[in-house]
Amino acid sequence: MIVALAMLANGCASVCVVDPDAPDNILRKLNASAEGKPVRVALLSGQRFSGTRIHAASDSTTWFDAGDRPVAVSTAEIAKVDVVSRGRGNMVWQGVLVGAVPGALLIGSALTSEEQGDVDLTGLFGVVALIGGVLVGGTLGFILGGEEETTTTYILNEESAGFLLEDTP
């Protein structure tokens, strides 16, 4: 049951808040994190933009919108930036674990069996089931894993932290 619920879980989020004493640290981290990834920018005014190739500096921030046009605003106007990472889901390991369970149970049964004749045969079936289960489970986990989206939110303006965190995916 827990494994099934874990397999359904998809996506992840984290939040980085700018340190008023060292704002350049978070901007460097944002720039490195966003390299080659889509971003969503929210301004303090409530305007929202999507784009790529963001570069944040202490005075201004630029990115390219969906039409590949540059957009530039004062960094002080930005409430938050969401950096979206996409990758293969984590279901391979979950599939391997689910697939290994029947084989592990058979091996455990063989080790606790009192009849010596059954130990070898049950243990052999357990090893075969374990190996087969891992291979089949891992393959199914990869196929069913799909695409996973992870969002890292960078809060660039202290004033925005309260109301914008509620809006973070």
Structure at a glance:
This protein is an alpha+beta fold. It folds into two domains: 2-89 and 146-165, SH3 type barrels (Roll); 91-144.
Write the layout of secondary structure elements.
Blueprint: H1 2-8, E1 12-17, H2 23-34, E2 39-43, E3 48-56, E4 60-64, E5 70-74, E6 78-88, H3 91-112, H4 116-145, E7 147-155, H5 161-165
Parallel strand pairs: 1-7
Antiparallel strand pairs: 2-3, 2-6, 3-4, 4-5, 6-7
Helix pairs in contact: 3-4
What does this molecule look like?
Helix content is 45%, strand content 30%. It has 169 residues and is α+β, with helices and mostly antiparallel strands. The protein has 2 domains: 2-89 and 146-165, Roll (SH3 type barrels); 91-144. The chain has a 7-stranded mixed beta sheet with strand order 1-7-6-2-3-4-5. Strand 3 and strand 4 form a beta hairpin. The radius of gyration is 24 Å and the shape is elongated. Residues 1-11 and 162-166 have low confidence and may be disordered.
Total strands? 7
Low-pLDDT runs: 1-11, 162-166
> How helical, in percent, are the residues?
40-55%
Q: Termini, distance in Å?
A: 26 Å
CATH topology of the largest domain: SH3 type barrels
State the domain count: 2
Percentage beta strand:
25-35%
CA radius of gyration is 24 Å
SSE ordering: HEHEEEEEHHEH
